[in-house]
Every structure is written in structure tokens, then in C-alpha cells.
Amino acid sequence: MSDKKKTSAGASGNASKAAELSLYDKLFKPKMYELPNGKISYEKASRTPLVLLLLLLMTILSVKITGFNLATILKRGNQFFVILGAMFPPKLSYLGSIWGPLFDTIKMSLLGSFVGSVLCVPFAVLAASNIVKNKIVLGVTKVFLSILRTLPTLVTALIATYIFGLGTLAGTTAIAIFSFAYIGKQLYELIDTVDMGAYEASEAMGLSKPRALWRSIMPQVLPTYLSTALYCFEGNVRYAAILGYVGAGGLGLILNEKIGWREYDSVGMILIVLFVTVVLIEYISHFIRSRLT
Q1: End-to-end distance of the chain based on CA atoms, in angstroms?
Q2: Gap between the Cα atoms of 248 and 268, Å rounded
Q3: Phi and psi for 79 in degrees, rounded to 5?
Q4: Do 196 and 212 meet the contact criterion of CB atoms below 8 Å apart?
Q5: How many CB atoms lie within 10 A of CB 28?
């Protein structure tokens, strides 16, 4: 090939590379180096300055929208420790009044987590794209789970109190709905990633789809599914503690009452008992989950 043809080929290659440049590279032109073979090599400009500029602009915009004032925090931030200091020493004589609401909170969390984790299984299967091939069924099921996941637990508990009245049944329902949506999403994403070889072999041997699913897919996802359910339960204990603010029973009822009366020493006792309970449940849950994996 002649030098003229090489130059023409190099020019056409450079032109195609120039056409592939992004808008950022066109605004901030990359450095060009000519290689010994006549081709042009590009060293693109770093995008770090643009990212930092965007972060700065978003931070300024957030400060203006939220009304954030650092001077107020520096001046009034000590008030947080004033209220915290009022909680200590906690009122030990109030301990006897905490056990009933505490057990209600644990029962709500346990029952709600169990019901939600069991009911979500068929919906998770319907949302798994490697099991169900009907796009309408897949889309409707995933949207349904997404809608339930969007609802805050406190709002769900408030709605449940209008249906079931005040008490732990409303709180249990709210926790069950949250657990249903959360574990359902985790489970269908887990099913999507399993090895389908055993499932296809089971179907080839004449098993029905439900039996093939139960014998080949569920053993693969069962340990992670149970681990996720336990993790959800330990989180639900914390969430259940504030459901009493909308009348859904548990520790939230007395917590809201004592904060309203500004009896912060009783609030301190409630928080200490809740902290110890959560730590114990997390320890037990972690021990069980370590045996499942």
C-alpha cells in the first residue's frame, strides 16, 4: 500500500474515532498523539472536575431547599445532649411496666415476619423470569411487590388501624405487608440466579412444574431465603417499636406517652430495654444464619 493510501486510511480511522467522541470529550477536547504507524491516539480529559462541580452544585441546591444552617447546629446542637442527659439515670421503677408492651412488640414482629415470609413465596415464583415466561404476569407481580415496598410501614399501620382498630393486630398486619414485599423481592431475584439444570432435568423426567420447582429450585434458595427472613425479623423489632405512634400497639404506645409527658427518665428506661432486646435478637439471629449458610 502506498503512503498516500496509508495516510487516507489513517485519516478515515481518525475521523471515525472523532465521530465516536462523547459530548464531554467534544467540549473538553482530549490530547492527541500521533503514533509511528500514522494513527492518532487520544488521551481523554478526566471527568473528575465535572463530577466535583456537579456535587458542589447539588450540595448548594440542597442547602437552599432544606434551609440547612450550620450556625444553628453549632449554636443549638447542645440541646440534643440536654434531652439525652434527662434520660439518665433511667427510672428503674418503671421497668415493670415495660415488659407487657415489649412482648407485644416481639410477638408482632415474629408473627408479621412469619406470615409475610410464607405468603410471599408464590408471588416470588410468579416474578421469577426463568420460571414464568408470561411477560404480563411477570410485570404485574413485580409492580405489585414494588407498590407494597413503597408504602412506609408507619403509613400501612395507620391504614390498618382504621380496618382492625387500635392494637397489635394492626401492627402485625403492617409488619407482615413490609416483610411480604421485602422478602418477596429478595427471593425472586435469588430464584432468577439459580442453576436451572436440575429443574429442566426434573421436567424431562415427567415431574410437573410445581413438583420440579419444589425439588430442584427450593433446595438451592432455602438457606438464603431463611437467612433473609431472619434478618427481616430482627429489623422488624426496631420498626415495631414506633408503630405505637399510630395506635398499632407495642412499645411505641408507652414511648409516645412518656415523650408527650416529658418523662424522659422513663423514656431512657424504655430505650435501654429495647436496645438490649435488639442486641439479643440480632445475636441469636446471626447465630442461626451462620448455621444456615
Answers
A1: 64
A2: 21
A3: -65, -25
A4: no
A5: 13
pLDDT tens, 136-156? 999 999 999 999 999 888 899
What residues have CB less than 8 Å from 202, skipping those under 6 apart? 211, 212, 215, 216
Per-chain mean pLDDT for the chain: 84
- HSE-up of residue 3 (Cα within 13 Å, Cβ side): 0
C-alpha cell of 61?
441546591
> Which class for 187: exposed (0-12), middle (13-18), buried (19 or more C-beta within 10 A)?
buried
Indicate the pTM of the whole model. Answer: 0.75
Cis peptide before 89 (omega within 30 of 0): yes
CB atoms within 10 A of CB 132: 16
As to burial, measured by CB atoms within 10 angstroms (0-12 exposed, 13-18 middle, 19+ buried), residue 229 is buried
